[in-house]
Every structure is written in C-alpha cells, then in structure tokens.
Write a structure and sequence with these properties.
It is a single chain. This protein is mainly α. The chain has one domain. It is built from six helices and three strands, in the order ααβααββαα. It has a three-stranded antiparallel beta sheet. A hairpin with a 2-residue loop joins β2 and β3. α3 packs across α4.
Length: about 110
C-alpha cells in the first residue's frame, strides 16, 4: 500500500493510530485500575464484562472515535456482528486486539 493510498484509507489510519497508542492505553488502564481498586471495593475485571460490547465502549477502550470502531467492524478488523443497525464487538477478540489480559481490572472511567 502506497503512502498516498494509506493517507486516504481511514481503516489503515485507525489501525496505525491504534498500534501507536495500544501500549500507552494498556499502561494507563492498569494504573487507573490499581488506583480505583485501592479506593473502592472489589475490582471489576475485563472477563466480567458482557460477551458483546458496543462501539462506544470499544472506542473509549482503544482511544479512538466510535465511528472508527464501526469502520473497523465493517472491514473485519474486529470480530463483531451487526444486529439490525447496531454493531456488537466480541469482548475476547477486543481484549486480544488491544493486548489486554482478561484478568486485568477495568478502570472505572470505562464503566461510566
């Protein structure tokens, strides 16, 4: 793929942006989860989330726009299904894509 094609491809741009920020996001999520669990009761773990999550939650988790998540679903970059007009992303596939362990704690900011 040439630079010119890549610049016009929103999926490629989203993938590149996701790759750049994946490690940073994971570190921030772990740090936030540690702070929250220290101040609040029992932590929520990623494995406790529903099996299917929506694009809004996925976007907050990956640090990208909800529309970018939808484009990634359409392109097959994320394992997802479309129910009527709503996209639902497989939790385990999302965690694998983001490089997050299912036993890690979910930051409260993602649960709001």
């Amino acid at each position: 793929m040439t630079k010119e094609t890549r610049a016009n491809d929103p999926i490629a741009e989203a993938e590149a942006e996701s790759a750049r920020y994946r490690d940073v996001i994971q570190a921030e999520l772990q740090q936030a989860a540690a702070q929250i669990s220290a101040s609040v009761g029992e932590p929520v773990r990623y494995r406790d989330l529903p099996n299917m999550v929506n694009p809004k939650f996925t976007g907050r988790m990956l640090g990208v726009n909800e529309r970018t998540v939808t484009r990634m679903c359409v392109a097959g970059k994320l394992k997802a299904v479309k129910v009527m007009s709503l996209w639902r992303i497989n939790r385990d596939a999302l965690l694998e894509f983001a490089g997050i362990d299912p036993n890690d704690e979910v930051p409260r900011a993602l649960l709001v």
